[in-house]
Amino acid sequence: MVALSWLLSILSGLVAYGLYRFWKQLTFWADLGVPHNEPKFNQLMDSKMHIAKQHQQWYRKYKGQFPFAGLYLMNKPIALAMDLELLKCIFVKDFQYFQDRGTYYNERDDPLSAHLFNLQGTKWRNLRAKISPTFTSGKMKMMYPTMIAAGKQFSDYMDEHVGKECELELKDLLARFTTDVIGMCAFGIECNSLKDPEAQFRMMGRKHFETPRNRLKDTMCMAFPNFSRFIGLKQIVPELSDFFLNIVRETIEYRTKNNVQRNDFMELMIGMLKGENSELGSLTFNEVAAQAFVFFIAGFETSSTTMTWALHQLSINQDIQDKARKCVLDTLQKHNGDLSYDAMMQMPYIDQILQETLRMYPPVPGHFRTVGKDYPVPNTNVTLPAGTSVMIPVYAIHHDPEIFPDPERFDPDRFTAENSKARHPYAWTPFGEGPRICIGMRFGLMQARIGLALLLKSFRFSSGPKSTVPLDFTPKSFILAPEEGLWLKVEKL
Fold first, then answer.
1. Nearest-CA neighbor of 288 among 143, 106, 115?
2. What is the pTM of this model?
3. Could you read off the pLDDT of 434-478 as tens digits, one per residue?
4. 3-class state of residue 311 by DSSP
5. Nearest alpha carbon to residue 248 among 206, 283, 293
6. Cα-Cα-Cα-Cα dihedral sign, residues 435, 55, 57, 171
7. Which among 77, 117, 146, 493 would be 20 to 30 A from 330, CA to CA?
């Protein structure tokens, strides 16, 4: 009886301590004297509103009061960074405090989730050093012919399916184009999703982004990552995981057995799998598969979504569309009609259109970081304890009228060299900044340039009977995507 009494006392004490710690977290921001929202269970999980719009509401509410505001996910404190100088510190100046994103991964049960975007600490640093050389401008130039080959298939498809005038749903069509580009560049595989919308790669891409999210599980993974790993929670659909593990294994085995070599991402990964570059070190099979997975998933969706929003804006701003088309045609004329790598890099107005599109519609509307060690926030008397999550509301900052006047107007001239130089360098961060900037930025921009140049060269886009203006964001996806696709009238020139 005495032993049982002691056991019950210990259990009661542990429960009481756990409850104390839980409720103590709910006064976290008040104790630090930081402007904050009252904690709510679903504060970051409002299914009726895209998270970008939630960020914007909080940003507008708290901007000017303090460099950052306090939010809660369940009882987990999150700092909403709003001051651009603070962003500079987080991204670059004080990066040693903010190396990790704090996004969930489970290397044991969900190996494809342990990719470069999610990894932390030493694992991230080592993998970044190994993979960075595969995304240099030189490697992009090497992959360019493969990207152009996919672009040629896209042009042929459009020529075949566009009559004198018709109306098309372009969001899915652009995703099929970028799926084919990534399939060829990452795996050396002809996905054929332009010809067959039900092609396996396209279906797997859809499955990743269109499978309904389990918001409770997402909340658990964000708020309690260690416990979620302990109980084996996964975020990648099992069918999708099996498909990519098998396709990577089959590709490696086929190329190794038949001595096949290609100028693509997989060839570079196979070299590291074999440890051919002693300076960079080798990768395990699971590491190769995880990088191939994130290259495919992140590459096709973000680029296709960017092109979707660009065409939406060009369709309602015909003067800008005409200027963009002239830029493409003039450049092609200088290069004897050849859409070479050099020609593609000499279309500044196309770049400005993409930059303005990424301002208005950043595919990833917020960046996340975790405080690695206690951080004294500059120009405040607040120290953020290690483990605190930080969120950077990219969409909200991009739509701040004090930074970008008349922010809902599409104006590529915001990104002339002169105007860009006059703006705070951390006002526009669709890819992040600093050591954790998106490693695939060059690749994503290149395939978007190719897609837009090919489309503008031969076709005019305008609103049709099925067009929706303005387009709403779908709250089902973290990626900033239109709710109902993009229907436009397309005319062959």
1. 115
2. 0.90
3. 999 999 899 999 999 999 999 999 999 999 888 888 888 888 788
4. helix
5. 293
6. positive
7. 146
